[in-house]
Design goal:
mainly alpha; 69 residues
């Protein structure tokens, strides 16, 4: 994906992926109804930002310029 510049680095990416998957799974196991799906969606978003290496919120805050964090 050439339309954005990575703004989070390797360890940060790994933590986001693991944490995002954990939050999504825990939400679907321990919560019920629409709350479970909303929290799982948030966890999935965290995991996806880790996979692609770009976080829009970090970009707005100026965190991790140039792919290193």
């Amino acid at each position: 994906m050439g339309f954005h510049r990575k703004n989070i680095g390797g360890p940060h990416q790994a933590v986001r992926v693991v944490l995002g998957i954990g939050v999504a799974v825990a939400a679907l196991v321990y919560l019920a109804g629409s709350a479970a799906w909303l929290v799982a969606l948030g966890g999935a978003r965290l995991a996806v930002t880790g996979l692609v290496g770009y976080c829009p919120m970090c970009a707005m805050a100026g965190i991790g310029k140039g792919g290193t964090s």
